[in-house]
Design brief:
Length: 211
Amino acid sequence: MVQLYYYPSNASFAPHVCLEEAGADYELILVDRSVDGHKSADYKRLNPSGRIPTLIDGELVLFETAAICLHIADKYPQHGLSPAPGGAARSTFHKWLFYLATTVQTELLIWFYPERYADTDDGKAAVKAGALARLRDMMDIMNDAVGPGPWLMGDQFTLLDPYLLMLCRWSNMAGSGPRERSNLNPYLDRVLARPSVARVIEQEGIRAPFV
């Protein structure tokens, strides 16, 4: 059985949706951030960065959200969570996966944790302002990318969709206004209407509105 170490509304959300989409036999293990469970010695033996999520699949221990989502997609290829290898669609899929994971998600971490980049209140405010401006540009890029949809990859629902939903939730908290975009607004409603997404929101006890 696959085990997913998670905390509600953290970066474990997208892998959790992927497991639901795949119909996987899995177990959720709560890492309680409210008592610094992610910083415990036991957890850091699994994930030395002390971040959430971590996935265990037999002898395999994985961290990093994008790597976990891709592993689930490849483990259950019949569910189409990623395009088949070898074609242009797979390369386009990788482009957006790396953009979400290394550009958008990284910028969100800057906004949420400005103390990592500045010591003074003015410095922290400047860090957050710069990150927000860049996030607004990124939301414009993603608005164009989703286009008429229905999904980021067109007709194929992939792991990119819960990943983008998760990042849009955090971007909304930052004030970048994903719901203000003409394509992103209906796109987010479509992803939220996905049964797997609804189940995960319920299982994690996330209160509406999600984004």
